[in-house]
Amino acid sequence: MPNKIIIKKKIINFTKKIRIPGDKSLSIRWVLIASLSSGISKAQNLLMSEDVVATIKAIKKLGIKVFYNNQICKIYGAGIDGYKYKKNIIINAQNSGTLGRLIPGLLIDSPEKIKLIGDKSLSKRDFKRIADPLSKFGANFTLKKGYGLPMTFKGPKKLKPVKFIEKKGSAQCKSSVIFAGLKTHGKTIVKAKKSRDHTELLFKYLKLPIKVKKKNNFDIIEINKVKKIKPFNYNVPSDISSGAFFIALTILSEKSKLVIQNINVNPTRVGMLTILRKMGVSVSLVNKKLYKGELIADLNMKSPKTLKSINCPSNLNSGAIDEFLLIFLIAAKAKGVSYFKNLDELNKKESPRLKWGSKILKMMGIKTITTNNSIKIFGNPKLEIKKKIIIKNFLKDHRVFMSSVIAALSFGGEWHIHDKDSIKTSFPTFLKTLDKLKK
Fold it and tell me: Could you state, in order of their start, the residue ranges of all structural domains in the chain?
């Protein structure tokens, strides 16, 4: 079968209630923390995407037993110091920046040299940003061209606690240092720009030795060595980053209504909802509850009659960093000029997403002014595409593929979107879920 999709007509209006698969960030973190626990942990609704499967394969190489049956994953944790380090271990993070950046923190005390590799896209991403702080613990790192994969590293005879200032708002870098702190005697301190806090919330729920002091623009996190992690069962909440595609489709489709059930609405993840409300979209969260540290709810919304342009405050960027391709599409239908700035992190994802967002809009006939870290979008509320558009050579970035599908279904035209298999990275059932909206 060809590895592309052809879309020739817009979606008609819909009123639907859907469930989204488990959150990718939480799924990966559960696998990693469960592997360090002392006993058997179980998970339901674990996202079995390529990123999560790569994480499971990684812990298996470290001697951890994993069984998956009847949609329940069991991990037999070996304890905080229970990994088995054989010679010449190679960890393949494939396309997963989360796995690639988090697991060196867990392996910071390895007595054997470990090689970390990834696919073509991941190999181009910046790993110096974790090698630099982790090397302060005493570990030795070697990176290709000084920043990329493959990366080799080996732990010291004795780890020493560090003080680290994280300035980019990267939850991956912050979490990697926190994991290393779990294995280090003494107090590790991280002063981190605001970013996703899934690691901290799970640590607090598990009563691990972590303290978080929240300031206006940053958090101060203290972590001490842990002796034991209790095994824990987890029903993974649904992923708002995956749900964002259907949120965007509802906004861009006239007279449509959508409910997404049991979705993770962690305050560090709902920047897109804040941006949409500023653009005139009504989104409500009902049935809110806390589940093992995370806030979950049912999300209710309907398509707005009009969309307002936005001068987007950059303090919302980190909470919406994975959703900006969709936000750009929504801005394309807004009345007036929208402006988004300080988005240089967007070009450091699986593909240079700011460049791709601008490229797709221009293909659609939308005027943009783009720099290396900002974009102005001249919206057209009456946009109707009547030409052929081909999307390819985007480094198999799953979010470029899925955002292009949403654009095709929302604005019309004939779209040929390549690398359909890219959705296996984060949302293997994306197209099946879309089919439910069409029925």
Answer: 4-22+237-438, 24-235
322 is catalytic: yes
The whole-model pTM stands at 0.94
- What's the CA gap between 237 and 234, in Å, rounded? 9
Closest CA to 197 of 226, 225, 221: 221
Three-class DSSP category at 168: coil
Average pLDDT over residues 40-60: 97
Supply the Cα-derived Rg of the chain in whole angstroms: 22
Q: For residue range 74-114, what is the model confidence (pLDDT) as tens digits? A: 999 999 999 999 999 999 999 999 999 999 999 999 999 99
Name the residue among 51, 114, 52 with its Cα closest to residue 83: 114
Domains 4-22+237-438 and 24-235 share a fold: yes
pLDDT at position 1, please? 61
Give the pLDDT score at 389: 98
Q: How far is CA 27 from the centre of its chain?
A: 11
Give all strands (DSSP E) within 303-413, no chain letters: 337-340, 367-370, 375-378, 388-391
**Rounded Cα distance, 147 and 71, in Å:** 38
| 425 token code pair | 């990275």
What CATH number is given for 24-235 in this structure? 3.65.10.10
Dump pLDDT digits (tens) for 285-314.
999 999 999 999 999 999 999 999 999 999
pLDDT over 80 at 3, yes or no: yes
Mean pLDDT on 365-377: 97
Is 163 strand, coil or helix? strand
Find the catalytic residue in 119, 197, 322, 397: 322
Instruction: Tell me the C-alpha distance between 80 and 423, whole Å.
Output: 33
Looking at residue 2, what is its pLDDT? Answer: 79
Q: What are the counts of helices (DSSP H) followed by strands (DSSP E) for the chain? A: 13, 22
Residue among 391, 387, 385 nearest 333 (CA): 385
Helix (H/G/I), strand (E/B), else coil: 297: strand
Closest listed residue to residue 239, CA positions, set 104, 97, 433, 40: 433
Choose the CATH number for 4-22+237-438 among 3.65.10.10, 3.40.50.720, 3.40.50.1470, 3.40.50.280. 3.65.10.10
Q: What is the DSSP string of 83-130?
A: ----TTEEEE-TT-HHHHHHHHHHTTT-SS-EEEE--HHHHTS--HHH
